[in-house]
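User: Hey, my collaborator sent me this sequence without any context and asked if I could get a structure. I don't really work with proteins. Can you help?
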Amino acid sequence: MRELFPKAQALGVLVNPQNPRAAADLASVRTAAGTFGIETYPANASAKSDFEAAFVAFQSKHVDALIILGDPLASRERKDLAEMSLRQAVPAMYFAREFPQAGGLISYGASSPDAYRQAGRYVGRILQGERPGDLPVLQPTRFELVINLKTAKALSLTVPPSLLALADEVIE
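Assistant: No problem. I've predicted the 3D structure and written it out in C-alpha cell form, which is a compact way to encode the shape of the chain:
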C-alpha cells in the first residue's frame, strides 16, 4: 500500500471485532503504518449492515486508503466491499486474490492453493500414522500480489511499474 500511495497519511482499517485474529491483525497494521508516520482509523463491521457506517467513518476521517483485514464476512461480501470502495473513491487493499477478481483494487496475501497443498500433505501424514500433535505448525510460504488495473483506472490511479513487475497477476 505504501508503494501505491507514498504520500498517504491516513489509513482506514475495516475490522470484524468478532474475529479472534482481529486485535492482533489490527495491531500489526498499526505498527507497520506507524513506522511510516501513517495514522490508522479502524472501523468495526461484524455484519454486512455495518459496512455503510464504516465507510461513512472512513470518509469523515478523510482516509487516503483502506485495508480490509482477513475475515470470513469480508470474503463472503467481497463484491459489495469492492463496489463500496469504488463508489466512495477510496482505494482498498485486501487479503486475498478473490477481491481484485471481484473488482477490488489490490490484494496481498497467502496463496490459497498453496495452503490447501500444505493441508493435503498434513492429512497424508496423519493417514500414514503420524500423530497430529507431533506435526509442526506451518506458516504460509507463498504470497500473492494481485492488481486490478481496471479499478485503478476507475479510481484515477497510476500503478507504478515497479509494483506491476512484482504482481503475480494483473487484471486488465
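In plain terms: The first helix runs from residue 22 to 35. You can pass these C-alpha cells on to your collaborator as they are.
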